[in-house]
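During the second half of the funding period, the structural biology subgroup turned its attention to how the target accommodates small molecules. The most pressing case was zinc ion, which had performed well in the primary screen but for which no bound structure existed. We therefore specified the complex as follows and requested a full 3D prediction, including the ligand pose.
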Amino acid sequence: MNEEPTLRVGILQGYSEVAGRLNGPFLINDALSLSGMFRACAREGRILLADAAGHEIIHEKEVSCTPLDNSTFTLLDVMIGKNFHWQRKQEQTFRGELRLILDESDKLVAVNRIPLEDYLSSVVSSEMNAEAGLEFLKAHAIASRSWLVSMLGMAGKAVHGGNASAGPDQKTKEHIRYYHRVDHTLFDVCADDHCQRYQGISRPMSDNARQAVERTRGLFLFYNNEICDARYHKACGGLTDNFANTWDGVTVPYLTSVPDSAVPYDPIRTEAEARKWILGDPGAYCNTKDPNVLRRILPSFDHETADFFRWKVAYTRTELEDIIREKSGVDFGNLLSLTPLERGPSGRIVRLQIAGSKRALTIGKELEIRRWLSRSHLYSSAFVVCAENDKSGLPVRFILYGAGWGHGVGLCQIGAAVMAMKGFMSESILKHYYNGAELQKLY
Ligand SMILES: [Zn+2]
Ligand SMILES: [Zn+2]
């Protein structure tokens, strides 16, 4: 890859009808020019595109609208039919090409074809607070760019698959599951949180975000002549974890555990070490409770809590029994114990044994544990369990003391932002989290 790739972003899917506005001249299917309002719907297995007056413009399998000059297009909030995935409450404006296609059930899909760098400016701007330091945004732009191209296999690298399986049956003793992003078929990435939130140019772009992408244009993280699968998460809790503990058991050298601090910490090896680490308050880049710092990093900080570095969740036994039964479909009877059998170097539990009066089951990996033990998701699987028992020895309450937010692999976003505030440059920040990775400019 030696030139900027073009990305296909799925903007709308599952619509019976799409309405919008071409803000300036567009070339329709390389044949005719159109501007102004338009409507599109499925008709006889093809797409019927009509202009503002309702006159048919084109009736084809696919419709591509290529901007002439610097025209942009706007999609309006039209939802006829029941199959839409999510509700749009505002108009969305985009740069680049609009392509309308039909999915298998003859519903409309609107795809925006856009150069990678334009896409990144929008994503960095909408995912990160513009106030976060420029060096942090630059580091994030390089990581996002690398992850994206690696994930899409644009540079010819194979992507590891997930191990999707049904829920555990009665006889299973182990239920180990990990998740990968489900690939899209009609486009590369969607505009939703499932991939990365993308709103085109609907919102004013922050100067910092634009600069961060421009100044790192074409820069990728490399390891062994391959673009890095640069994973990131919210907060590691003081130590990052290994790729193999979250996804398939492959060792990825640049995604191995590092202490998130200027002083070294040993990786967690035993339950005693895990308890001491998680119940402690070690100095780390992501160990910050300063609301001014957090407000500058997290776009929606005011709605979030600041207790992600060390956190606590308490359940009554019956409450936790209900949650586990709801989330897993497994009835353990009376819940007797939660026992970590294997942890990663960050303290995250990889295999957890759940024992009840009716059965026992070992579950993993970290995301499955976080899903089963919370109505939403636990912040992380790095936790220690304290059970309070009644006189008969039956637990009445389970208290989980935990550390960190997210899978803990790769770049720690809070830590990286704090490093930038301390004066570290983007390259040092990236090399801190991605062991042995180097920067390389491809275009
Ligand atoms: Zn997606
Ligand atoms: Zn961290």
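Two results from this model are relevant to the next phase. The mean pLDDT is 90. The first helix runs from residue 116 to 127.
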